[in-house]
Input
Amino acid sequence: MSFHVKFLIVIISLVMFNGSVLATTEEDLIKKLESDIWYDLFYNKGELQKYKKGDNFKKLVEVAENKGLDWHIRIKAIKLLSVTSNIAVPDILINMLYDPFFNHECPAIKSSVAEALGNFSNDSRVVDALLYSMNDGEIQVREASIDALGKIRNKKAIPALLKIVDDKSIALRIAAIRSLGMIGDSSALNKLTFIAEKDAINEIRSTAKDAIERIVN
Output
């Protein structure tokens, strides 16, 4: 066998080997997400790099959308999507948030979408989607949306958050007050000062004081 033929065989073998390493199946991905070390695997050992684009990225989306899978697996896929840096992710997550059937009887799934959208601060459509989901029927989704708006720190959310501070839910009130503090706009000071001084619930007064301190400092 000539040197050139041997060289060609080596090259073909390397290409096939690399292809097999890069290629993955949905089943492979699910097994990785089911692993006890999934977080370390994806975030610390570079596994996430394989899922940032191409067919592997599509498989990650498919796992997140697969209503037949355990909700824990879907939430892990959603969290990973939000840190892939793929430009398609905001649209994908926004569509999930607007989908009335996406929860599939598990509010934690859609609340994880809202939480994931908190990683996208430069997209006005994300703010609009989160404002929409603040009115979701599930309190867990509403709270996650409020938290995400605080993380994004877009002033457009302030009027809606000021309304939520008077909600009957203590959890939502605390989340809204905390997010107003994170946004840091002085337009919320009057309301927060009143709450800090007059509210009957100690935890809410304390949260309002913390929010005020964030804004003035």
Observations:
- The first helix runs from residue 3 to 22.
- The radius of gyration is 22 Å.
- Residues 26 and 62 are 8 Å apart (CA to CA).
